[in-house]
Amino acid sequence: MPTFTLMSREEAALYSATGKRAQITKQYIGYINELNARQSGKLELEEGESVPTVKRRLHTAAKAARKQISIDAVRNNTIYFSIKRRKNETPG
User: Fold this and answer.
1) How far apart are CA 21 and CA 14, in angstroms?
2) pTM of the predicted model, to two decimals?
3) Nearest to residue 70, comparing CAs of 59, 78, 60, 61?
4) Between the CA of residue 9 and those of 6, 33, 64, what are the distances in Å?
5) Closest CA to 54 of 13, 30, 24, 33
């Protein structure tokens, strides 16, 4: 008997999506999934990448991963981001 798992449409689309855009989104989901609520991530842009594009990719990946992120800062072509804590989560 197969095992059923409920997922969002965005997440399901990632499994069926192919091409460069899907690969990029999967890569960004990997970045997001490495973080926990007490960590931050840093993306250093490469030549030819733009801050708005990378921010959009981060938000798209977060939505697919069912997480909310916060862009904490953008400095010198580097984006700092973190996972937003849920209201009932306590720091520490």
Assistant:
1) 10
2) 0.74
3) 59
4) 10, 18, 8
5) 24
Comparing CA positions, the residue from 1, 2, 29 lying closest to residue 13 is: 29
User: Would you list the domain boundaries of the chain?
Assistant: 9-83
Per-residue pLDDT of the chain (92 residues; tens, 9 = 90+): 888 888 777 677 766 667 888 888 889 999 999 998 889 999 999 999 999 999 999 999 998 888 999 999 999 999 999 998 766 555 55
b or e along 25-47 (b: 16 or more beta carbons within 10 Å of the residue's beta carbon)? Answer: beebbebbeeeeeeeebebeeee
Q: Which residue has the tokens 């689309």?
A: 13
Asked if 37 and 92 touch (Cβ cutoff 8 Å), the reply is no
**C-alpha to C-alpha distance for 82 and 71, rounded to whole angstroms:** 7
With a CB cutoff of 8 Å and minimum separation 6, the contacts of 89 are 37
